[in-house]
Amino acid sequence: MAESDTFAQRASPIALRYGLAVSSVGVALIFVLLLRPDVLIAPVFFLAIMLSAWFGGMGPGLLAALLSTLAIDYFFLPPLQSLKFDLHHAPHLVVFFLSALLVSSWSAVRRRAETLLRRARDEMDVEVQERTADLRQSNQQLQAEVAERKQAEDAMREQASLLNLTHDTVFARGMNDVITYWNRGAEELYGWTSGEAVGQVTHDILQTGFPAPLNEIMEQLTRTDRWEGPLVHTRRDGTHVRVASRWALQRNQQGQPVAILETNNDITERNRAEEALQKVQSDLAHVTRVMTMGELVASIAHEVNQPLGAIVANGHACVRLLSRDDPSIEKSLEVIQRMIKDGMRASEVIKRIRELLHKTPPEKAPLNINEAIQEVVALVSGDVLRSKVELKTELATDLPPVVGDRIQLQQVILNLILNGKDAMSSIQSHPRELLITSRKNNSGEAVVAVRDSGAGLDPEQVGQIFEPFFTTKAEGMGLGLSISRTIVEAHGGTLWATPNEDNGATIQFTLQPGSRSES
User: Fold this and answer.
1) Could you tell me which residues come within 8 angstroms of residue 222 by beta carbon, excluding any fewer than 6 positions away?
2) I need a surface site. Which of 80, 163, 425, 449 has the fewest CB within 10 A?
3) What share of the chain is helix, strand, coil (3-state, %, to 5)?
4) How many CB atoms lie within 10 A of CB 81?
5) Alpha helix (H) ranges present in 169-296?
6) Sign (positive/negative) of CA torsion 258, 259, 260, 263?
7) Are 462 and 500 in contact (CB under 8 A)?
8) Angle between helices 41-56 and 58-75 (to 10 degrees)
9) Statement: residue 264 has pLDDT above 50
10) Kindly report the CA angle at 512 between 509 and 516, in degrees rounded to 5?
């Protein structure tokens, strides 16, 4: 059904066009037969042909030309009303038919050209309208973008004026490190005006000193869009300034880095104050060590007297052995070897004392914390035993090396041992035991703990024992634990105390592994 309808729709215009050709020739024939205008016969039929070709096209035009030729031959050339024609009139018919063909083709071509021209003009009008609409839309979008950019520029100018109110230095630079913005705080700190700084390479004008290679800093900035750390800059007058610097990376819509915003805070005076504070703390720690060693004078004298006494006794024995009529060389050599061993033992004690009392600036280096513990235990073991305290050690073998100052960490361990010993001085009801342990926690840190079986800690005083000048001993100064906490925190660790479930308390501290501490 649908195909027949389509065929009918296509056939209908064809029938009308060819019907127009037949009708036009018929009207022209009737007009000529009725009026008998002998002179206008050919033009009238030409007019019918032109109308057929103009409105119907080439096919109807050809049909009209053929019908017109046949009509002229039949009705107007002898013999009349017969399709036979005299050869004498054949040239006229041929000329008429060819002229009809030319007129038909000319009319059809011109009609087609006008149709194509009208269609092209219509299409051009539509295209012009579409382009006009597109241009109008693009113009509207451009105006909106201009308005948005103007608002953004106004906002940026407002933000820039706000940035000029801060005392911090704020400046922006491109990925080639060329400065594009320089606020008033930067002018005051560095000495260059905004006009002088903008367009300069930041690391050239400020002669920046970095804490790490610049390519590593840029790699971290590109990866995280953030970086912060200390820098050293040079002012216009040539003086140096230390700053705490923060960098933020700006990216475009495609995610490409386009600019860096840098803010700096002057920490020169703060660093000087921190260095002065560290010197005071170091001096105070040295005084505390000297006082602590003063408390151990009796123990130290005993530790030194034992090998010295043995040396003297062995010396007399060696003299007797060599004074015999038959000197015993072998036994004399054995006695001399014992004398050398006792001398080395006394020398080791003196060496440890000199190291603890020697005033040197802190020097961090990789060390085995277990060895440091054992050296302190060897120094105080005699004093601890005379106090009727059983000293035990449980040191883990899988501890990572730590980076720290050996003398300062030994001072912490010494303070904790002596505090634990003093905490058990009045205990008579149960054994006095002091346990020193080392282990590695889940974070990979080294943990050193000193556990005593003394009277324990008052829960209200657990948080106060590390405060300066707080002490529970009548003769104490309250500086040992405070200095110990300062030393541990300076090494990146934590020092804390906890009461035991049965008797006494445990004081322990953490130290970071060497790789982390170095970083």
Assistant:
1) 249, 257
2) 80
3) 60, 15, 25
4) 7
5) 184-190, 194-197, 202-205, 214-224, 268-295
6) negative
7) no
8) 160
9) yes
10) 165
Q: Is the pTM of this model over 0.70?
A: no
Tell me the domains of the chain and their CATH numbers.
Answer: 13-126 (no CATH), 164-266 (3.30.450.20), 270-361 (no CATH), 364-519 (3.30.565.10)
- Distance CA(342)–CA(119), nearest Å, equals 122
Cβ–Cβ under 8 Å, residues 21 and 50: no
Amino acid in position 10? R
Consecutive H or E run containing 481: helix 480-490
| Percent of the chain with pLDDT strictly greater than 70 | 72
Dihedral sign (CA 293, 299, 303, 304): positive
Does residue 423 contact residue 454 with C-beta atoms inside 8 Å? yes
Assign 3-class secondary structure to 294-344.
Answer: HHCHHHHHHHHHHHHHHHHHHHHHHHHHHHCCCCCHHHHHHHHHHHHHHHH
Q: Give the Cα separation of 110 and 88 in Å (integer).
A: 35
Predicted confidence (pLDDT) per residue in 117-164, tens digit: 778 787 887 887 888 888 888 888 888 777 776 665 555 556 555 566
Cα gap 68→22, rounded to integer Å: 9
User: What is the layout of strands, in order, in the sheet containing 179-182?
Assistant: 179-182, 169-174, 257-266, 240-251, 226-234
The answer to whether residue 518 scores a pLDDT higher than 50 is no
Q: Can you list the alpha helix ranges (DSSP code H) found in 324-400?
A: 329-357, 369-386
CA 101 to mean position of chain CA atoms: 84
Higher-confidence residue of 108 and 518: namely 108
Separation of alpha carbons 433 and 453, rounded Å? 6
Between vectors from CA 342 to CA 337 and to CA 348, what angle results, nearest 5°? 125
CA–CA separation, 198 and 76 (whole Å): 102
Six-digit token string for 98 = 């060819």
Alpha-carbon distance 285 to 481, whole Å? 11
* Mean pLDDT for all residues in the chain: 76
Tokens 């008052």, located at residue: 458
Give me the phi and psi of 83, to 5 degrees please: -80, -5
